[in-house]
Specification:
The complex is a heterodimer of chains A (291) and B (225). Chain A is α/β, with parallel strands linked by helices and 291 residues long. Chain A has 2 domains: 144 residues, D-Maltodextrin-Binding Protein, domain 2; 94 residues, D-Maltodextrin-Binding Protein, domain 2 (3-Layer(aba) Sandwich). Chain A is elongated, with a radius of gyration of 22 Å. Chain B has one domain: MetI-like fold. The chains are: A alpha/beta (291), B mainly alpha (225).
C-alpha cells in the first residue's frame, strides 16, 4: 500500500513537472519572438552568417528528395537554390536542413531554419503558428483509376471501394463529404498503389501531383478526376513575425516571376515526372499571385 | 520483379549512404549506452539507500523518463530548451543527451532490482564478517548483482539501438531515414525497392545488436563460476 501511494505521488509530480516544462516552452516562444523582432534584422543576420538555412524534404520526390548520389534535388530545392543565389550571391550558400512533415512548424519556431520550402500547404491552422509568403504552387485532390474502367466523376464511386492513405487530405475530404463511399485505408504510398494494381479498390485518391507522376510510370491507369475538392496553395513559410524576410521572399517571387522562373523550375524537376499530358498552369503559380 | 529491386542498393552511392546512416545510429546508441550504464549503475546503488528523500528523488527521475515518451523529450530539448536559453544544440547532441539520461533512468531500476533481489543473508553474513559498507558492496553485492542485471541491461541496450530511429524527428538522418529516402525516390520505377531496403536495414540492425547479445552470453558464462 505504501508503495502504491508513492507511485501515485510520483505520477502526479511527474505530470506537474511536464506541465511546467511545457508551459516554460510556451512562454519562452513568445519571449524569443520579441527578442527576434527587437534584435537586428533577420536579413542582416543571414547575410552576416553567409548561409541561409532552408528546410526541405528528403523523401518526397519530385519536390524534395536526395538522389542516389546523396545530393538534394527537386522542385522546392531548385527554388531554394535560386533564393540563396539572389540573397547571398551564390547558390552554394544554402544550407539544406532535412525536415519531417510533422515537425516543420517547430523547425521554424525554434530558429532551426530561416525558411521552410517543403511542400508546405497553406492552412488556417498553420497560419496561426507561422507566416506564409505568397504561393508558388497549387494542389488539389485527384482520383486515379484503371483505363479499362475509368472513374471520371465522384458519383461513379458510390457503392465501390476507394483507396486512400491514412491521415491525408484525401481521407478527410471523402470522410467528410462522401461518407457513403467505402474507404480502403493504407499507411504507405507503396501499399496503396499496390492495392490499386491488385484491384482491391475501384480507384485511388491522393494529391493530384503525385497521381500524375504515378500514372505516367504505370501503363493502364489514368487520372480520371484531375482536380477535386478545394484548391490549396503551397508557399514558403518563415517564423511568425519575421516580416522582413517575408517581404523579401514576396518581392523575390515577383522578380523571378518576370522571367518565368517557377516554370523553369517546373520544366527542370516536375516535367520529367509528370510528362507532357499535364498543363503546368494547373500546378505552378508565377509571381506569387493566383490568376 | 524482385530482382530488379535489388539494383537500387548499389545505385549511385546508396550503399555508402545507408552505411553512413548506420554509423550515425550506432554512434548515438553506443555512446548513450556507455554513458547511461555508468550513470545508471551509480544511480541504482544510490537507490538502495535508506534515506527516503534520496530514494524518492531517484524514483522521480526514473518515472519522469518512463512516463514521458522519448519523442516528447527530444522535442522539449531540441525545440524548447534550446529556444528558452537561446543556445544551439545539434540534433545529434540532443539525441545523445536524451538517450543517455533515459538509459541511466532505466538502468538504475535494473541495478536496484538486481541488488534488492539478493538474499538478505548475504548482507547479514557480510556484516557479520566485519566488512565495511563499501566492502560489502565491493566484494559481495556488486559481483553478484552484475550477473543478475546482465539480461535486463542487454535488453535495454538493444531497445535503445532500435529507439534511435526516432531521432529523425529532430533532423538527424539515421539508417532508417536514408532507407526511406531511397524507397520514396524509387517508388515509381522500382516499387519493390522497399523489400530490399528494409531487408538490408534488418540485417544492419542485426549486425549492431547481435554482438551485444553475444557479449552478454560470454560474460554470463564467464561469471557463472
Amino acid at each position: 500500500m505504501v508503495m502504491n501511494i508513492k507511485k501515485f505521488l510520483a505520477v502526479i509530480l511527474s505530470t506537474l513537472f511536464l506541465i511546467g516544462v511545457l508551459a516554460g516552452c510556451g512562454s519562452s516562444a513568445t519571449d524569443s519572438k520579441q527578442v527576434s523582432t527587437n534584435a537586428k534584422s533577420s536579413l542582416e543576420e543571414i547575410k552576416k552568417s553567409g548561409t541561409i538555412k532552408i528546410g526541405v524534404f528528403s523523401d518526397k520526390p519530385p519536390f524534395g528528395y536526395v538522389d542516389a548520389n546523396g545530393k538534394n534535388q527537386g522542385f522546392d530545392v531548385y527554388i531554394a537554390k535560386r533564393l540563396a543565389k539572389d540573397l547571398l550571391g551564390d547558390e552554394s550558400k544554402v544550407e539544406f536542413v532535412l525536415v519531417e512533415a510533422a515537425s516543420r512548424v517547430e523547425f521554424l519556431q525554434a530558429n532551426k531554419v530561416d525558411i521552410i520550402l517543403a511542400n508546405f500547404t497553406v492552412t488556417d491552422e498553420r497560419k496561426q503558428k507561422v507566416d506564409f509568403a505568397n504561393p508558388y504552387m497549387k494542389v488539389a485532390l485527384g482520383v486515379v483509376s484503371p483505363t479499362g474502367e475509368p472513374i471520371t466523376s465522384v458519383e461513379q464511386l458510390k457503392g465501390k471501394k476507394l483507396i486512400v492513405n491514412k491521415g491525408t487530405t484525401a481521407e478527410t475530404y471523402f470522410t467528410k463529404n462522401y461518407p457513403d463511399i467505402k474507404l480502403l485505408k493504407y499507411d504507405q504510398n507503396t501499399e496503396a498503389f499496390e492495392a490499386l494494381k491488385d484491384g482491391r479498390g475501384a480507384a485511388l485518391a491522393h494529391d493530384n501531383t503525385l497521381l500524375f507522376a504515378w500514372a505516367r510510370e504505370n501503363a493502364g491507369f489514368k487520372v480520371g478526376i484531375p482536380t477535386l475538392g478545394s484548391l490549396d496553395t503551397i508557399a514558403p513559410a518563415v517564423k511568425k513575425g519575421d516580416k522582413e524576410l517575408l517581404d523579401w521572399i514576396n518581392t523575390e517571387l515577383e522578380n523571378i516571376g518576370k522571367e518565368n522562373f517557377i516554370h523553369k523550375a517546373y520544366d527542370a524537376t516536375l516535367k520529367p515526372a509528370y510528362g507532357d499530358s499535364i498543363n503546368p498552369e494547373d500546378i505552378v503559380i508565377e509571381g506569387g499571385k493566383l490568376k | 520483379m524482385l530482382n530488379s529491386g535489388i539494383s537500387v542498393l548499389v545505385e549511385g552511392i546508396n550503399l555508402q549512404r545507408l552505411l553512413a546512416g548506420l554509423f550515425v545510429t550506432a554512434r548515438i546508441a553506443l555512446i548513450s549506452i556507455v554513458i547511461g550504464s555508468v550513470l545508471g549503475i551509480m544511480l541504482g546503488l544510490i537507490r538502495t539507500s535508506k534515506s527516503k528523500v534520496v530514494r524518492f528523488i531517484c524514483r522521480f527521475y526514473l518515472e519522469v523518463f518512463r512516463i514521458i515518451p522519448i519523442l516528447v523529450w527530444m522535442f522539449i530539448v531540441y525545440f524548447g530548451v534550446t529556444n528558452m536559453f537561446n543556445i544551439h544544440l545539434s540534433g545529434e547532441l540532443v539525441a545523445l543527451i536524451i538517450f543517455s539520461l533515459w538509459g541511466a533512468a532505466e538502468m538504475s531500476d535494473i541495478v536496484r532490482g538486481a541488488i534488492e533481489s539478493l538474499p538478505k543473508h548475504q548482507i547479514e553474513s557480510g556484516r557479520a564478517l566485519g566488512l565495511s559498507f563499501w566492502g560489502l558492496y565491493r566484494y559481495i553485492l556488486i559481483p553478484q548483482a552484475i550477473r543478475r542485471l546482465l539480461p535486463g541491461a542487454i535488453n535495454l541496450s538493444t531497445r535503445m539501438v532500435k529507439t534511435t530511429s526516432l531521432v529523425v524527428m529532430i533532423g538527424v538522418i539515421d539508417v532508417v531515414k536514408v532507407g526511406q529516402q531511397i524507397i520514396e525516390r524509387s517508388i515509381l520505377k522500382t516499387p519493390t525497392a522497399s523489400f530490399w531496403i528494409y531487408g538490408l536495414i534488418f540485417i544492419l540492425y542485426f549486425i549492431v545488436c547481435y554482438p551485444l547479445a553475444k557479449l552478454s552470453k560470454i560474460l554470463e558464462t564467464k561469471w557463472e563460476s
